[in-house]
Write a structure and sequence with these properties.
This protein is α+β, with helices and mostly antiparallel strands and 491 residues long. Helix content is 26%, strand content 20%. It has helices spanning 17-31, 34-54, 63-72, 86-110, 207-216, 222-227, 230-233, 293-298, 303-306, 327-333, 346-349, 390-400, 442-445; strands at residues 112-116, 130-135, 187-191, 197-199, 236-238, 246-253, 258-262, 265-268, 271-272, 281-287, 311-313, 318-325, 344-345, 371-375, 382-384, 405-408, 411-414, 417-418, 421-423, 428-432, 448-449, 453-463. β11 (311-313) and β12 form a beta hairpin. It is globular and about 90 Å long.
Length: 491
């Protein structure tokens, strides 16, 4: 009879299993090439620096996995190298792609990332078609709140148009130590605060603006209406903080400050702040005929900004263009023979409705050139809440900081308790574009919470003029490697 299990018997001609394991480990270490030890040492150094930066010693256990990958190889990571034919070829590509994706994930998550300027809200400081390198270490990178995501897509996979992330697990917000805090005047990349809910077929105006407009038109349940009309609005989806659209604006108001806008001048704590050198405002330009595309292009006005032909105002009795201009551009336009009268700011013309500002749904009488005064929330600061100021801070309290906020019988309840005070958990910022009259910014959707901050652009990688051909100035050679944070030192 065969003795299947008898611990009292010796192994006969073999060593103890533990001894075999030790011998195997020694043999594996002995056979490891010097170059592999060097690579392992470099990777280990970078890994432990990352663990120290993360401030979580438990992450150090991952080093055992690196040890096996580079040295011991108890797990057959490279089994495919012993095969032949298509399996070896395919797995070679898979191995290279996985390695590259992990490296890109780490760089994009903790070091920096490239972003494209899609709109004119910061012209002429940054141009449509600029590709920027954004430094995430300057304010401290966020630990990914949605860790399971494809690193080369923000929220949607190209071609197949599916989500590029898994909503679960969701990690709590945590930011690693950075070089410095946000300063006034910094150009900042951040996740769009109202990008949590999105109507996929309509990007602008966003879901909340659509809901507000539908309510004004007598529709009581806007979301239900949108869901019943997918041919117009598309699917209504929710996105986590770090998977929302990326916006880029200039930091104007900082946590704890009081902000007031009067006749387009911005006051912080009662004092007017300087404007960026290339700040633009829309001007009504009366004309006696069309102005050629080449003439507009000669001073840097995009076709999207001037249109194909002048508009006509029969009440005022003249044709006109409505165009964003810097002071220098305005001085040039005033000399053109097609201009038939003095230029006026769009905000002074009375041609347009300038209302509909933050906070959406509350009527403070604020307009685009005249807002406030309002206080920007600061972490740890306590605010006296009233029914009058609640609309300004309601979204910050309920959505960004996750509280149950209700108003009942004229009283404010937070998480079921009646209160007149609230202490903020996050810092908030007021962001605006340099192209003041064509920028969807904090004047329309309010504060940017600190957990939405991505980083600050360092330089322009490359720049393409989307309105020109390849051999007609499409590549803006003079913008390559240009500073992507102009005028930040003026504030």
């Amino acid at each position: 009879m065969t003795d299947l299990h008898n611990p009292s018997k010796g192994s006969g001609n073999g060593a103890h299993p533990t001894e075999k394991g030790i011998m195997s480990l020694r043999e594996r270490i002995r056979r490891t090439k010097t170059t592999r030890w060097i690579r392992f040492g470099i990777v280990s150094l970078l890994f432990f620096l990352w663990v120290i930066w993360m401030g979580n010693p438990w992450l150090g256990l991952i080093w055992l996995l690196l040890l096996d990958i580079y040295i011991t190889a108890y797990i057959p990571w490279t089994w495919w190298k012993k095969t032949n034919g298509p399996v070896r070829t395919v797995m070679g590509w898979v191995d290279a792609i996985v390695y590259a994706l992990v490296l890109v994930y780490m760089i994009f998550a903790f070091i920096g990332q490239n972003y494209k300027i899609p709109s004119s809200s910061l012209e002429k400081s940054l141009l449509v078609g600029d590709y920027l390198w954004v430094n995430k270490t300057i304010y401290g990178p966020r630990v990914p709140q949605t860790p399971l995501h494809f690193p080369l897509a923000q929220h949607t996979m190209p071609v197949i148009n599916t989500k590029s992330y898994l909503e679960n697990p969701q990690l709590e917000y945590h930011r690693l130590p950075g070089i410095r805090e946000i300063k006034r005047g910094d150009i900042v990349v951040f996740n769009y605060p109202q990008g949590d809910t999105v109507a996929l077929k309509i990007q602008n105006p966003d879901y909340y603006q659509i809901s507000h407009d539908l309510k004004r038109n007598g529709i009581e349940n806007p979301r239900e209406y949108m869901e019943m009309n997918p041919q117009v609005f598309g699917e209504i989806v929710w996105r986590p903080v770090d998977r929302r659209e990326n916006y880029v604006k200039r930091a104007i108001g900082l946590p704890g400050e009081r902000l007031l806008i009067r006749n387009d001048s911005i006051f912080i704590n009662g004092e007017v702040i300087p404007e960026p050198e290339n700040v633009q405002y829309n001007y009504i330009i009366p004309v006696n005929g069309p102005i050629s595309d080449d003439k507009w292009s000669s001073i840097g006005v995009r076709m999207d900004d001037h249109g194909n032909a002048p508009a006509r105002n029969d009440i005022a009795g003249f044709s006109y263009y409505d165009v964003p201009l810097t002071k220098e551009m305005k001085a040039a336009v005033e000399k053109w023979e097609e201009v038939s009268g003095p230029l006026r700011k769009e905000s002074d013309s009375g041609f347009y409705d300038l209302s509909g500002m933050f906070p959406l749904g509350a009527d403070y009488g604020w307009t685009r050139p005249d807002m406030g005064e309002l206080w920007i929330p600061e972490r740890g600061a306590t605010l006296h809440l009233t029914l009058n100021n609640l609309p300004i801070y309601e979204r910050a309290i309920s959505v960004y900081e996750g509280n149950d906020l209700k108003v009942k019988d004229g009283k404010i309840f937070i998480n079921g308790e009646e209160t007149e005070y609230y202490t903020f958990k996050l810092d908030y910022y007021w962001m605006m574009g340099d192209n003041r009259d064509r920028s969807a910014d904090s004047r329309y959707w309010g504060f940017v919470p600190e957990d939405h901050i991505v980083g600050s652009p360092m330089f322009v990688i490359v720049s393409f003029d989307e309105e020109k051909g390849l051999f007609d100035g499409k590549i803006r050679w003079n913008r390559i490697l240009r500073d992507a944070n102009p005028d930040s030192s003026k504030f």
